[in-house]
Amino acid sequence: MKVISDLNQPTLVDRSLAAVWHPCTQMKHHESFPLIAITKGKGPWLYDEEGNALLDCISSWWTNLFGHSNPRINQAISNQLEKIEHVMLAGFTHRPVVELSEKLSALTNGNLGHVFYASDGASAVEIALKMSHHFWQLNGKTQKKKFVCLQNGYHGETLGALAVTDVAIFREAYGSLLQDVYTVTSPDARKAKSGESAIDVAKHAAAELEQLFKKEHQHIAAIIIEPLVQCAGQMAMHAPEYLRLVKDLCNQYEIHLIADEIAVGCGRSGKFFACEHAGIWPDFLTLSKGISGGYLPLSLCMTTNTIYRAFYSDKTQHGFLHSHSYTGNPLACAAALASLEIFASDNILEKNVIGSQDLAKAFAWAKTDSRIEHWRQQGMILAFDVKKERIKNTNSFALEMFNKGIEEGVLIRPIGNTVYVMPPYILSAEETMQMGTSVQRALEKVLA
Ligand SMILES: *Cc1c(COP(=O)(O)O)cnc(C)c1O
């Protein structure tokens, strides 16, 4: 964790700060907090140049499911590498993309049987928005072109995805570039007044949505939602009831439902798809982050036969003419197939029931801490808020927690005053306990 530089012998960190513009970072902050050069990873552990170990409590930005340098995924990529590393997906196909599409379709019982690929999450969201818009055009409902999104929602940072994102810090500078959208109340369960349940909050939010749909449905193409957990929006959780209510309203008013499961999909919520908790299927479902086990950039948008058939025509321009150079990359698909194989052979969803109980135990201390409120959990996501009045400097709290976490050997990256963990699915019970204790120590240091 070297930060001190010797001009004659620049460290890897020095060279990175000079040449690499890091994401989601005010680069000047690195004058006072360390940039860490990682040289290897094994299981849930990351190692820096000096061999210090860090427990990856946030799955390297919510991507890594089965640990770093997982032998089975390594082998699958290596096997694929011997066959074909990449080929364009227009006019060509290959076994990994076919098998991955079939397996994903089967996981939805064929409800979302058509899979369109891209490389990053934001692009998958763009695809869902464009497909919805285009579908209504093809159906002669050319007025249906606006999107509804939720307060506090996050769907990525390209211009289309950012338009349906409601996180001020990401939007502020770009507002004038973004299309107009309807932003409705989030069903965030933290808003429950005394005597109210999460379901009550969900019902109020859905009632407000119904008013909008009633008035504007002729102009609305789709609503986009992060099912159950608005992750970037401080891990705000809501009742599955909200999804059922929204799905009913969408049916009633002919509006598409886009479920953005980029963060909550792939078992994170406790089921493979978060929508399964509500027993609904959306018109579009996006996946990325965990789908390749955290190995390679891969994203996808799944949709129904109804949507697919609307584009099926003799006319070229009625097709969905969207593309990315690396669409359906065979190596990424091989990593994804290996990940799905691990889900099946190792009964990951069942094991995660135990894993999430371990998680709750490891963070039981936070439930009774008077400086903490809104302790919450959904599957393999656990979060709580540190009361703002107990924090000396709310602007730097997240950064200080990150720094103290590093000292304690854990990688955590709080969002505002929300501390959360979202670990890989392979932690032992001991490692989970260790995570809870280390996060507690880091918090004590920051609040001291
Ligand atoms: C991360 C995320 C995205 C964007 O994915 P990128 O790969 O970062 O573009 C979109 N939606 C949700 C819910 C996410 O968590």
Which residue ranges are poorly predicted, with pLDDT under 50 across at least 5 consecutive positions?
none
CATH architecture of the largest domain: 3-Layer(aba) Sandwich
Largest sheet entry: 7 strands, mixed
Taking the alpha carbons of the first and last residues, their distance comes to 24 Å
Top CATH class of the largest domain: Alpha Beta
The count of helical stretches stands at: 15
The general outline is globular
The H-level CATH homologous superfamily of the largest domain, spelled out, is Type I PLP-dependent aspartate aminotransferase-like (Major domain)
Strand numbers in spatial order across the main sheet: 4-12-11-10-7-5-6
- What is the averaged pLDDT score? 97
- The helix content, as a percent range, equals 25-40%
**DSSP strand tally:** 16
Could you walk me through the main structural features you see in this protein, from its secondary elements to its overall organization?
It contains 15 helices and 16 strands. It has helices at 12-19, 59-62, 71-83, 95-107, 121-138, 159-163, 168-171, 198-216, 241-253, 305-311, 330-345, 348-362, 364-367, 397-407, 429-447; strands at 38-42, 45-48, 53-56, 114-118, 146-150, 182-184, 220-225, 229-230, 236-237, 256-260, 284-287, 299-303, 372-378, 381-386, 410-411, 418-421. The chain folds into 2 domains: 36-69 and 348-447, Aspartate Aminotransferase, domain 1, CATH 3.90.1150; 74-345, Aspartate Aminotransferase, domain 2 (3-Layer(aba) Sandwich). Helices cover 38% and strands 15% of the residues. The chain is globular and about 65 Å long. It is α/β, with parallel strands linked by helices. α14 (397-407) crosses α15 (429-447). The protein has a 7-stranded mixed beta sheet, with helices on both faces. The chain has a 4-stranded mixed beta sheet with strand order 1-2-3-15. Strands 13-14-16 form a 3-stranded antiparallel beta sheet, covered by helices on one side. The protein binds pyridoxal-5'-phosphate.
